[in-house]
Inverse folding.
């Protein structure tokens, strides 16, 4: 049975675990695209500013949902063990990365309406974590933007998974799972978040 009706409901649930940040200098940073609706609800509940970071998963050829790594602006994370396990060649990985960098550039251009994170605590939020590659890339990107402290938060993740202390200063996950192969199975409604929805959430004054 799904834990959440949709990403907004997941955001309300996760906000309870992040209540200590209400009224602070923290900025809630959604991982675009699916993490942004979750982050937006947290920002609304806690009265915090909202931002977003563009990240693209490097999916295995023919098995794109399985992350071999992830990229963000100025950040590249690759799981070499996963690459070897999947038998992916250097050329194949380069082709995947080239395609994803094209998408990353277009998506990053949409996120200018977000609040700045430089000098602040950045609460990096995704809708769930499977391998952790996307989350790591997002945290590293936010750190490079000048965030003073990075808190990584997700409603669900494998119970054995934790971010490296160099990636995130704090890890918040209210619903760790013994097994997690697909984040979507924990949502009744896991439809794809669109670029237009991300833009509207970051800047409600923008008409769709």
């Amino acid at each position: 049975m799904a834990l959440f009706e949709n990403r907004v409901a997941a955001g309300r649930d996760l906000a309870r675990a992040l209540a200590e940040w209400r009224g602070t200098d923290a900025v809630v940073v959604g991982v675009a695209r699916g993490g942004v609706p979750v982050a937006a609800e947290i920002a609304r509940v806690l009265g915090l500013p909202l931002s977003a970071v563009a990240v693209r998963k490097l999916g295995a050829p023919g098995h794109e949902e399985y992350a071999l790594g992830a990229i963000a602006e100025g950040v590249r994370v690759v799981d070499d063990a996963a690459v070897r396990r999947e038998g992916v060649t250097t050329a194949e990985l380069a082709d995947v990365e080239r395609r994803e960098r094209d998408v990353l550039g277009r998506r990053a251009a949409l996120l200018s309406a977000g609040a700045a994170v430089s000098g602040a605590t950045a609460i990096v939020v995704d809708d769930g974590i499977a391998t952790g590659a996307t989350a790591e890339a997002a945290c590293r990107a936010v750190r490079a933007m000048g965030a003073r402290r990075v808190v990584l938060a997700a409603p669900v993740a494998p119970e054995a998974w934790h971010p490296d202390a160099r990636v995130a200063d704090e890890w918040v996950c209210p619903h760790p799972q013994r097994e997690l192969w697909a984040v979507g199975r924990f949502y009744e409604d896991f439809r794809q978040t669109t670029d237009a929805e991300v833009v509207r959430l970051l800047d409600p004054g923008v008409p769709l």
Helices lie at 7-17, 35-46, 80-86, 90-108, 133-144, 195-202. The chain has one domain: 7-183+197-202.
